[in-house]
Design brief:
Length: 287
């Protein structure tokens, strides 16, 4: 799949607690709002993205089970539509496709979150995704998915490396704080090393500054520092800290369908970030 026009993007951070899953959900919400057929793969054993996407699995295999036998896995038969699709269908123009599927996460995938995986193990998710080429992969004559978002664990153990092997690009998430900025620098170095050894087509899609408090002098200082350190990799707009994120995710609703000015502003920010990620990926392929 990574050789096709489908963009496969891992959302990563080597530091926990920066809102990586929230960014994954925000981008998924933006993709759904834009009518971009999208698959979210919840590779974090905590499976928070699965919960936030309002998934009700009924007998389907989760991603950990599919990784166990990747060449026999039937991804198309085991994805689950997000509950957000029903919410969005009431507001979308007639004829617009609403596709937001989820490869559900589970603790089972944790058996692969170790540092000693072989090259064959690293290709497990790539093999699962390649299975779409052997299965029904079109809807109304169009590709089943145009975008795949992978929510990774906050570490560089096996699952993150499995995700990176299957991806075109890695989107980094950081808070404007000392430890998070240092973690982002480590992640960029790790991507470069991993690219050289395992995945020559892999690149960084950019860095999303999340949970930004505009009134914080420390955050302003760190954002300036990040701009100097990372240059154009630091994407704009930044994502402001939102007091009701937990409420939104607890209700399993998308940011685009939550009332209030703060949610509307966040939804617009994710729309712009998604466009930049997709546009830069297309430019890279043309280059």
């Amino acid at each position: 799949m990574t050789g096709s026009r489908v963009q496969v993007v891992s959302i990563s951070s080597l530091k926990g607690g920066v809102g990586k899953t929230s960014v994954t959900l925000g981008l998924a919400s933006a993709a759904l709002s834009a009518g971009i057929p999208t698959l979210v793969i919840d590779l974090d054993p905590h499976a928070d993205a699965t919960t936030g996407l309002s998934v009700n699995a009924s007998g389907q295999q989760d991603i950990g089970q599919m990784l166990r036998s990747p060449r026999r896995a039937e991804l198309a038969a085991n994805v689950v539509p997000s509950g957000w699709v029903e919410q969005a269908s009431k507001r979308q123009p007639a004829g617009q496709r609403s596709v937001l599927d989820v490869a559900a996460g589970s603790a089972y995938s944790g058996i692969y979150d170790r540092p000693d995986l072989s090259r064959r193990d690293l290709r497990r998710l790539s093999a699962v995704l390649a299975g779409l080429d052997r299965q029904e992969r079109t809807i109304a004559g169009k590709p089943r998915y145009e975008l795949v978002l992978i929510d990774c664990p906050p570490s560089l153990n096996g699952l993150t490396r499995i995700a990176w092997t299957a991806s075109n690009r890695v989107l980094l998430v950081a808070e404007p704080g000392l430890f998070s900025v240092a973690g982002t620098e480590r992640t960029l170095r790790a991507i470069e090393l991993f690219r050289n050894e395992f995945a020559p087509a892999l690149s960084a899609a950019g860095i999303v500054a999340n949970r930004v408090r505009s009134a914080s002098a420390e955050h302003s200082y760190r954002l300036s520092e990040m701009s100097t350190m990372f240059g154009p990799l630091l994407l704009s707009p930044t994502i402001a800290e939102q007091a009701n994120w937990q409420q939104i995710q607890g209700a399993a609703r998308s940011i685009h369908h939550w009332p209030g000015d703060a949610a509307k502003t966040a939804a617009e920010a994710f729309d712009e970030l998604l466009k930049k990620v997709l546009d830069s990926g297309q430019q890279r392929r043309r280059g």
